[in-house]
Amino acid sequence: MNSGQKIIIVGSGIGGLVSALILAKHGYQVQVLEKNHQIGGSLQVFSRDKKIFDTGVHYVGGLDKGENLYRIFKYLDIYDDLEMKRLDEDAFDIVRLSNGITAKHGMGYENFSARLKQVFPDHTADVDRIVDEIRLYCSYFPLYNIEMDSDINYVEHHEVLEVGAWERLSELTENEDLIKVVLGSGPLYAGLKGVTPFYVLALILNSFIKGSYRFVNGGSQIAKLLMKKIGEHGGEVLRRKEVVSARFNESGKISSVVCSDGSEFHCDYVISNLHPGETIRLFGKERFKTAYANRIAALPNTIASYMVYISLHENRLPYFNSNYYDYYTDRIWDEEFRFSENWPQMTFTSAQVSKHTGKYAESISVMCYLDFKEFERWENSVRTVVKEGTRDEHYEAFKKMCEQRVLDRMEERFPGIRSMVKEMYSSTPITYRDYVSTPNGSMYGIQKDFNNTTRTQINTRTHIPNLFLTGQNIIFHGILGATIGALVTSFNFVNNKQVIQKIKRYD
User: Fold this and answer.
1) ∠108-111-113 over CA atoms, to 5°?
2) What is the pLDDT of residues 165-207, one digit of tens each?
3) How many CA atoms lie within 13 A of 423 on its CB side?
4) Phi then psi for 501, rounded to 5 degrees?
5) Pick from 380, 393, 402, 476: CA 20 to 30 A from residue 26's CA?
6) What residues contact 345, with CB distance under 8 A and at least 6 apart?
7) In angstroms, rounded to a whole number, what is the distance separating the alpha carbons of residues 169 and 197?
């Protein structure tokens, strides 16, 4: 493929933005089309009560000097401009089980092991085996380790994809509480018993062990910096441009995309940062092989989330530089996600970081999982900044009821928190669907399943000759997963060995 050709990228999530910047750096003419007023996908933020809340990014790993995301962001020339706060080295994550056990995840493998051994002194050998296994599995993924000396090969020893996380840990220790603590941050990647592969746990947990950070005033700064760099290399990011259809030439290639406002953008290639199912719908199911379209349609997606954003009274809640994973059931990774008298059974709590954060927290965000089925009665409604739709009073009442239920749980683990609340806001699975265009508001797209590895591995190439995929569904989810997925997508256009060598220089 020759540089100078025009590439349209649909969707400005981090996968789309990173793909755009890499290609722009190599001379391609890139245009990113975003349907929303704000760019960034899950990097979007919003402001309430003069405070900034993250919608999807609460902390990121792999950002210490020499680590994978650090090196990629240095290559993209955005790292030095990021405003970040390093989390507590001795407790970037705190897992609190329903039986009273509290365990801390420390940065650095020696520290990580030591913290677990303090809680499980009779199982030190088990902790060593678990840590060794995590590190071993990470070594099987060359690109994850910024290595690629041959053709594109994301994983060595494909059999490692077929090992379950819960199942492998059960072979390494008989202590179920130790298993639960290691898997305690699973809500960050939609961990599910009997489904989630061990490699997903290993790659994600390893990245946090090697440098966990929060972003000052929100993760949207990543998207803004990427957009700025895209512009410096001759590309552009256009907002309020919702792609609704495409035109094709006689060869079956996309010749242009058409937006809802009637504008049309001609192109040589298209990269979709949308969910593969949404991509198929957008460009026409009839243009894909029936077996492929049916496979994508049949793949389960990860659970959706319900988020509560809490603005706090001043000088009330001491700032905590850790993330809390609280469980109110002994069923870890298979808790009930439907609304019931026991919901929520898990909460993830993080404090927002602002330039003014000192001794006290200004605001916190609380995430829990909630099945999209609870919102099916409103699934035909749309409400965003761009599409200012409305939902009935029953929707608002249900949201408020959920807010109070979450606050009840918070009171159990943060006594007195209710009296500290100044304002409270929430978003639902249907909110996430509207803004990010994932089926049923799924936070992480297609569920990786060690029982069906070939079905859940998504190729960047499609049956439309000049249409490619990127984003969190390619490799795995999160900022790191979507960024690596963008690398894989870009390797269809640029020399992968040359890019990797440039990234490796930043050690």
Assistant:
1) 105
2) 999 999 999 999 999 999 999 988 888 999 999 999 999 999 9
3) 9
4) -60, -35
5) 476
6) 327, 328, 329, 331, 335, 336
7) 11
Least confident of 136-145, 297-306, 386-395: 386-395
Q: Are 327 and 368 within 8 A, CB to CB?
A: no
- Cα 37 to Cα 188: distance, rounded to the nearest angstrom: 26
**CB contact at 8 A, 139 and 118:** no
Tokens 């890019």, residue?
Answer: 499
Helix (H, G, I), strand (E, B) or coil at 374: helix
CB 233 within 8 A of CB 21: yes
In sequence order, what are the residues at sequence separation of 6 or more whose Cβ sits closer than 8 angstroms to the Cβ of residue 427?
55, 306, 307, 309
264, β-bridge pairs:
258
Do 308 and 428 meet the contact criterion of CB atoms below 8 Å apart? Answer: no
463 HSE (CA, 13 A, CB side): 14
Helix ranges restricted to H, 366-456 = 393-413, 417-420, 429-436, 453-456
Residue with tokens 């939609």: 190
Quickly state the pLDDT bin for 347 (edges 50, 70, 90).
Answer: very high
Whose tokens are 């239920």? That residue is: 405
CA dist 327 and 432 (Å) reads: 24
Q: Do 272 and 279 contact (CB within 8 A), yes or no?
A: yes
Residue 462 near residue 279, CB atoms below 8 Å: yes
* Closest to 199 (Cα-Cα) out of 369, 449, 445, 444: 449
- The residue among 344, 315, 361, 339 whose CA lies nearest residue 412 is 344
Residue 85 dihedral angles phi and psi, to the nearest 5° = -130, 120
Q: Could you give the CA distance from residue 243 to residue 263 in angstroms, rounded to a whole number? A: 9
Cα separation of the two ends of the chain: 30
Classified as helix, coil or strand, 108 is coil
Neighbouring C-beta atoms of residue 358, cutoff 10 Å: 9
**Residue with token string 């071993």:** 136
Q: Whole-prediction pTM value?
A: 0.94
CA distance 400 to 425: 9
Q: Domains in the chain, ordered, with CATH?
A: 6-42+74-81+219-299+453-504 (3.50.50.60), 85-215+301-440 (3.90.660)
